[in-house]
Amino acid sequence: MSYPITIKPFGAQAVIIEWPDKVEEAILEDILQFDKYLQSKYTDEEQWENIPAYNSLTLIKREGDINFGKFKRTLKEWYSEKRQQAPVTRYQWKLPVCYDQEFAPDLKEVAKLLNKSEREIIDLHTGSIYTVFGIGFLPGFMYLGGLPETLITARKDSPRLKVAKGSVGLAGQQTGIYPQDSPGGWNIIGKCPIPIFNLNHDDPCFVNVGDKIAFYEISRGAYDLHKIEAEVGIFKLEKKELNA
In the list 85, 111, 168, 217, which could disulfide-bond 190, CB 3.0-4.6 Å? Predict the structure, then answer.
């Protein structure tokens, strides 16, 4: 399936290709398929950086400016000739979260705002499987779609100056994990002991756009254990291939 796309300059060395302004997995799948097609034929990693997210694909040329008019016509031709690719390999990852009060400063407030118990908030959060629609803001910050409507919560009116690394938050129709200490305005309801972004690894961020995330609850003791296991490199992430 093809969609109406628009192509805009994004500085001298980049363009952004936009799909319909909707958050839909079918659109994300088309973006990932086109990205895979471009990388296999036209935009090798040495010369280009491709960044898919939500309803867009940004192409950044590593050296030299882009002749936008010519490149725009070429991109439309490439999208028209796009062949059906084999499904992009995607994974579902299981990540532990501790929802103890120490790590969940906004859990009580969120429960009150949504007229639910804290237990219900945790069960709803762990009962859904989320799609990684984008990675950004911070290296490794996942924007996860698929939040139950009953958990939709507005961002905090006053952002915190510091949100701790690993904090799990809610904002609007999304949930996510802060990959490092940072200012932030999301409602913090738990904490994950597993680093999402680590520069010491060959692949600093193990998650990709299009992957799925499932959270499961752990105790405070299990949090401490998994944090140590992750630091020494022996924690085994649970994952399964979605296209298998």
Answer: 168
Residue in the structure block whose two tokens are 């510091």? 162
CB 26 within 8 A of CB 85: no
Nearest to 194 by CA among 239, 157, 149: 239
The predicted pLDDT at position 68 comes to 95
Grade residue 84 by pLDDT with cuts at 50, 70 and 90: low
> Of the candidates 188, 148, 153, which has an alpha carbon nearest to the alpha carbon of residue 168?
188
Question: What is the bridge-based pairing of β-strands 48-53 and 14-18?
Answer: unpaired
> Where would I find the beta strands (DSSP E) of 109-219?
129-135, 142-145, 160-163, 167-171, 174-177, 182-184, 187-191, 212-218
Confidence (pTM): 0.85
103's enclosing H/E stretch is: none
Per DSSP, helices labelled H in the chain are 25-41, 68-81, 107-113, 118-126, 220-232
Residues 57, 50 contacting (CB under 8 angstroms) = yes
CA nearest to 143, candidates 186, 113, 191, 183: 186
Asked if pLDDT for residue 54 goes beyond 60, the answer is: yes
Q: Both tokens of residue 4? A: 């109406």
> What pLDDT, in 10s, does the model give residues 110-169?
999 999 999 999 999 999 999 999 998 888 899 999 999 999 999 999 999 999 999 999
Per-residue CA distances from 68 to 7, 17, 42, 61, 99 (Å): 9, 12, 16, 12, 49
When pLDDT is cut at 50, 70 and 90, the band that residue 201 belongs to is: confident
CA distance 195 to 83: 37
